[in-house]
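Board notes (copied after class):
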Amino acid sequence: MLAAGRVTDPMIALLATVLAASTVKSVGAVIAVLTIIGFVVYLAVNVRSGRPEIGSEIELAANRKPYYPDEILEGPRLTRALSTGLLLLAVSAIGLPLYWLQEPARQDGAVEQFDRTFVNRGARLFAPTAEGGLNCAGCHGPGGTGGVAPPFTLTGANQKFAATVTWKSPAINTVLLRFSEDEVRDVLVYGRPGSPMPAWGEAGGGPLTTQQIDELIAYLNSIQLTSAEAKAESEATLRDDLGVGEGTPIDYTDPAVGKAIFNLGIKTGVAGGAYSCARCHTKGASFRDGEVSPPDADLSDFVDFADGSGAFGFALTSGVVPRQFLTLEALIKFLNDGSKYFVLYGQQGVGSGRMPGFGDNPNTLEVADDGMFSDGMLRAVACYEAVLGGESPPEGCKGGSTSSTTTTTADSTDATTTTTEP
């Protein structure tokens, strides 16, 4: 419950919407009531004037009675008729513009109500099976904060059973910071091959309609962390993994720091490893530290591969700089932006849309630096990926021919100190 006197911005917005909607309904209701009253009065007067015939021998029929003389017709009766018409005209002339002025608020309220309806329906779909949902929360955790999927079966050659493993499911409360809505929709519709993520959309063979997929996306939008929250969480996780206290500078040009980010949360399960690169670029990263059944199963074909040796994402162990990207800065830009479907990147790379943009939210292209990772974290990952094939650190990384040391603190993520080392 809210403390007494506490009013939040969402409450104010909701109250304004309700009041606007109420005002519109009130104006419309008043216009309708006045119009109905005017019609009823007019009808009653005319009915009263045309009383039923009692009998021609007792009383002269109404249609044979002399009507009002011209002095009355063109005097009091005409005045009353014109006054009544003027009154109804005034009601329409004043009421309709008032209604029209409130129309934008009414439409905004209708849109907000429509959005809330979609979010609520999406929340019901996301909920655990026990609550009548599709159990998205069973894998991705309540509120999409990351979790563990049910035992996933690994099959080897000729689809022969190898083992069942515990698969870390990534947090999806940051998924729209790195993927566009269309890319998320594709994953929901067609699933993730080789993982526990099934196809949910009709086009992919799943049970959900296009509208239900849209409702799930609306719910995902409602639970997303802000860019600042995601960066704070990723930095806090990094500091825990490195054993570095809050406020202590981190050298983001050090490939060793990049290695920690590359595998961020894989061992600890923080956010289900959603901040790590290894989930896509290292085979078996999502389950190599989980439970295995049978315990003595041979997983040599599935785990213990070198970082960046390739899996769902391409291999990074063959001189990613300069083979794939001519410069470190070009690689950093790719990590920041991600890939776009069928758009060229680097040296003859063709985008599939599967590579997320970790530094720039693809859903808000007009806003810069609103993704999951800070500039320093992007540089650290690039420095690590640049040496995965045994190469020397490139210029701009620690140990390179000309190194610049970039540090950040928890209090000032964007503050940098740059020094040139020999």
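Comment from the instructor: The first strand starts at residue 147 and ends at 148. The chain has twelve helices and nine strands.
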